[in-house]
Design goal:
Blueprint (H helix, E strand, L loop, with lengths): L15 H11 L1 H25 L5 H31 L3 H14 L18 H4 L2 H8 L5 H35 L2 H5 L6 H14 L10 H35 L13 E4 L3 H12 L8 E5 L16 E5 L5 H6 L7 E4 L9 H18 L4 E6 L5 H6 L4 E4 H14 L3 H8 L7 E6 L9 H12 L2 E6 L5 E3 L11 E6 L7
Parallel strand pairs: 1-2, 1-4, 2-3, 4-5, 5-6
Antiparallel strand pairs: 7-10, 8-9, 8-10
Helix pairs in contact: 1-3, 2-3, 2-7, 3-4, 7-9, 7-10, 9-10
Length: 492
């Protein structure tokens, strides 16, 4: 049930060496190495600007030559990398749309563009792609880091890129405009001065210590101040959203290690709320903790009034082993898995997540009673092979009810009463007392009706066989029975 990405290229169109090269570029270590080279290249470019504006001694001239040589070597590495990426893809137009800035950034390697070394700073844009690498690694991080620090990492990255770009651009524009007269007045723009100018302007929202002299410098200053306002707004929104989420999730202090024989519900929707109400309406639900594992971005799922203090929410992906272990799946009594179609997931993807979660739960705790919701019956075989106790095909059973209501008018009132614990009669599955072993179905049927006003519906053997309204049969030790009654029956 693996879906091919929308923009993926069929493997048959690529040669084996192209496939291997593509996998190599997808490696996180390669991405991190390229990011490190980008930082080194930008730092060397800034140092070149500093040396280029002063009268150079012979020793400084040699250092400048070494910096230029090193930067050219790194640029050649980027040329080779981009060439290999071009050869490894069959979608050439997509390659140019993705890497056109990187191609421009290697142009100073040619003599005709050597005077425009500042365009090497465009390589900083490539650092933004590093956030994709961080996102791929995020699944290995704890929940708090994934939910909070990822946004902070992005904001910090924007800060670093803005300061580095501002420092380099100010050295390039203001350093060249500096004359002997302005230098005598102390209006110097060394690399260090440019760095502090960018940093102060970023946080103060105005050029400090004063406006630049050149048009290019003024444009850079406006850009730095604009980025300061943008980053401040992003940081404020991130902190506010995270604090609201933490306050909502910590409204009830939970010691997850103390949960015993509780109910775990994977996913949340209108059906989940009905399930919670049914457990609360039953005698068992009054004492059974209910834990819901589901994901939300900013606000916890809304719960009907009266249930806020009775349902414990945990924000995570219910297919993750760590999430299931955190809510104590090893000590749970019941696990209900709902079909998750949030985020635009297809029915196939929702059933795949249900199967994955159900098999994981059974592996972690074989004794838990697992009931899963499927959207397509054809995947029920996977659940049976994984020893999942039961599953419901939601759309299919709804269709059965509609057909029965159409062919046998008035049955919906009967179903509405029997299928809920909130009013009238309901189904109860009970353990057959040892004293009834060896007696007949008809005897128990008569006794239940006379003594408890209950109707015996079926007998369930230990091997899983179900005898529904049999003509008569002999009851056996370890049988279960299903009855219709107003309250749960206690055999004397």
């Amino acid at each position: 049930m693996t879906l091919e990405p929308r923009n993926s290229i069929p493997a048959r169109r690529l040669r084996p060496w192209q496939v291997l090269l593509g996998h190599w570029f997808d490696d996180v270590r390669v991405e991190l190495a390229i990011g490190a080279l980008v930082l080194v290249s930008v730092a060397l470019t800034l140092l070149e600007f500093t040396f280029a504006r002063d009268g150079l001694a012979p020793s400084q001239q040699g250092m400048l030559t070494a910096l230029e040589t090193t930067n050219e070597v790194i640029t050649w590495v980027f040329v080779v990398e981009l060439t290999l990426r071009f050869l490894a893809t069959s979608a050439k137009r997509r390659f140019f749309r993705t890497y056109w800035l990187d191609i421009i950034a290697v142009l100073p390697l040619l003599r005709i563009f050597r005077a425009a070394r500042a365009i090497r700073l465009l390589r900083l844009v490539r650092l933004l792609r590093m956030f994709g690498v961080v996102s791929r690694l995020a699944s290995h991080f704890p929940y708090i880091l994934r939910r909070g620090a990822m946004e902070y990492i992005f904001v910090c990255g924007m800060l670093v890129v803005t300061v580095i770009f501002g420092s380099g651009a100010m050295v390039f524009f203001e350093g060249r405009a500096e004359t002997a007269a302005t230098a005598a007045e102390g209006a110097s723009f060394s690399l260090e001065d440019s760095f502090w100018f960018s940093l102060y302007s970023l946080f103060a929202g105005e050029p400090i210590p004063g406006p630049p002299r050149t048009v290019g410098g003024k444009i850079v200053a406006v850009f730095v101040m604009f980025m300061g306002l943008t980053i401040f707004a992003m940081l404020t929104g991130t902190i506010s959203a995270f604090m609201v989420e933490r306050l909502q999730s910590e409204g009830i202090k939970v010691n997850w290690q103390e949960l015993q024989n509780h109910v775990v519900i994977c996913g949340w929707n209108s059906k989940a709320e009905i399930i919670v109400n049914e457990f609360r309406a039953s005698n068992v639900g009054d004492k059974t903790p209910i834990v819901v594992i589901t994901e939300w971005d900013h606000e916890r799922p809304a719960v009907a009034r009266g249930l806020e203090s009775q349902v414990l929410f945990y924000n995570d992906d219910f297919t993750r082993v760590s999430a299931l272990e955190h809510v104590g799946i090893h000590r749970a009594d019941i696990c209900i898995i709902l079909a998750d179609t949030t985020g635009g997931r297809s029915e196939q993807d929702a059933d795949a997540r249900t199967i994955l979660a159900a098999l994981t739960v059974e592996k972690l705790n074989p004794s838990v009673y697992t009931c899963a919701e499927l959207l397509n019956r054809e995947y029920g075989t996977h659940l049976k092979m994984g020893n999942v106790n039961d599953y419901v095909v939601s759309g299919e059973h709804g269709a059965y009810l509609l057909a029965q209501a159409a062919m046998n008018r008035g049955l919906m009132d009967l179903f509405a009463e029997l299928l809920t614990y909130q009013k009238g009669n309901e189904f109860y599955r009970l353990k057959l007392p040892e004293s009834w072993s060896g007696r007949t179905y008809l005897e128990l049927f008569t006794w239940l009706k006379q003594n408890h006003n209950a109707v015996l519906v079926s007998v369930h053997r230990q091997n899983g066989e179900a005898l529904i309204n049999p003509t008569d049969c002999e009851l056996r030790l370890n049988d279960d029975i299903v009855v219709i009654a107003e309250d749960e029956i206690c055999f004397g």
